[in-house]
Amino acid sequence: MNNYLIYAIGFIAQIGFGMRLLVQMFLSEKHKKSLSPTVFWVISLVSAFIMIIYASLRLDLAILVGQIVTYYIYIINLDLKGWWQKLSRIWRTVVILTPAIGILSILRLGGFNLGDIICHPNISTSWLMLGLSGTVLFNFRFVYQVIYSVKRNESILPMGFWVISMIGTILLITYAIYRRDPVILLGQSLGLFIYVRNAMLILRSKYET
User: What pLDDT is recorded for position 1?
Assistant: First the structure.
């Protein structure tokens, strides 16, 4: 597939991820506290699916691994919001199975295999490990977030979520510079400011109470 088309798919996903953060920040600024709005999780779910396609086409394990995990965490948050139950059973089944079906189709049609992804000819082992570390940490924020939220039976974006986001972003920006990946670099750079701002809002609300 043409590289420009692959990049276009990636940019569409990053635009979606950027939009979710802008919406979340706008609503948080409006209410003077860090919020976890339903629209944030809806946009996240759609964008994650597109990003899975991008990572598969790029044969980039560092990006592919995290997206699959967070995809289902988005669903859990939508369930906590009561939005997931509003979908018909058919649609819920389609959404749950789509990532696996999409990835298998792309790998088969592209003639790729797991060995091609793990032993990428253009990425050294050390840099792949850095990218994987950033991806694991960056996506662990959602594991932390969903555990935190399930315990309280409410979808929340706590301070730990934003702190982990900042650390993971710095690692992924470093990886993206090495990979010369404009999609990852742009998306992560734009998100860093919003992560810092949400942390500031949480700290402010604690000091005011």
Answer: 61
pLDDT, position 115: 54
CA distance 200 to 34: 9
**CA separation for the pair 83, 7 (Å, rounded):** 31
In angstroms, the CA 103 to CA 175 distance is 23
CA distances from 181 to 58, 66, 126, 153 (A): 10, 17, 17, 38
pLDDT averaged over consecutive 10-residue blocks of the chain (209 residues)? 81 88 90 89 90 77 72 91 90 83 60 52 67 78 92 92 90 81 75 88 79
Integer Cα distance of 58 and 2 in angstroms: 11
Predicted structure pTM score: 0.72
SS3 call for 83: coil
Indicate the burial class of 71 (C-beta count within 10 angstroms; 0-12, 13-18, 19 or more): buried
159 closest CA partner among 145, 172, 171 = 145
Q: Go through 119-140 and write b for each residue having 16 or more CB atoms within 10 A of its CB, e for each that does not.
A: ebeebeeebbebbbebbbbbbb
- Closest to 146 (Cα-Cα) out of 72, 51, 200, 203: 72
What pLDDT, on a 0 to 100 scale, did the predictor assign at position 61? 61
- The amino acid present at 23, given as its one-letter code, is V
Q: How many CA atoms lie within 13 A of 17 on its CB side?
A: 27
For residue 182, the model assigns a pLDDT of: 77
Which pair of tokens denotes residue 86? Answer: 């509003």
